[in-house]
Amino acid sequence: MAIERTLVVIKPDGKKRKLTGLAIDRLDQSNLEMVAAKVVKVDRELAEQHYAALKGKPFFENLVKFFLGEFHGFKTCRLLALIYEGENAVAEVRRIVGATNPEEADPHSIRGSFGKINPKNGIMENVIHASGNTEDAKREIALWFGEGNIES
Ligand code: IDP
Ligand code: MG
Known about the structure:
two-stranded antiparallel ribbon, binds inosine-5'-diphosphate, globular, alpha+beta, binds magnesium ion, 4-stranded antiparallel β-sheet, Alpha-Beta Plaits
């Protein structure tokens, strides 16, 4: 099995609802190692690049606003970004995080336990981001941490 790295970000709803510690605790129940952690000031450019694959979707603008903390009262949006490393890290973190739609996610998962759909705009407020595949993980890690900025 391949040793992988994957990106996790605690989203503004997770931050606002004080679920950061709980999310880390759940991720600690894996055999993965947290190899980097950083609080990042998120601006529109980072938010749009992070979700570049979804540009053109009808919910894109509200998704970017959500990620910038605009629906959770954050004037400056600082989010915790983490990198986990280990065997099958991408799939393992996704298993703990749960499916995109919190209403369909396994109730044992973070999103299934704590996510919700915002009734005003339909955005899936699902507490935590996790890279969807190894390609996305590489791109996202470079975007959030920069090349070569991680302790080896
Ligand atoms: P993922 O976060 O599970 O990888 P993506 O499809 O990459 O899911 O979408 C990124 C984020 O955009 C989701 O986590 C969720 O917050 C939001 N989102 C995705 N699809 C929808 C949708 O159909 N309606 C509302 N929000 C969505
Ligand atoms: Mg995704």
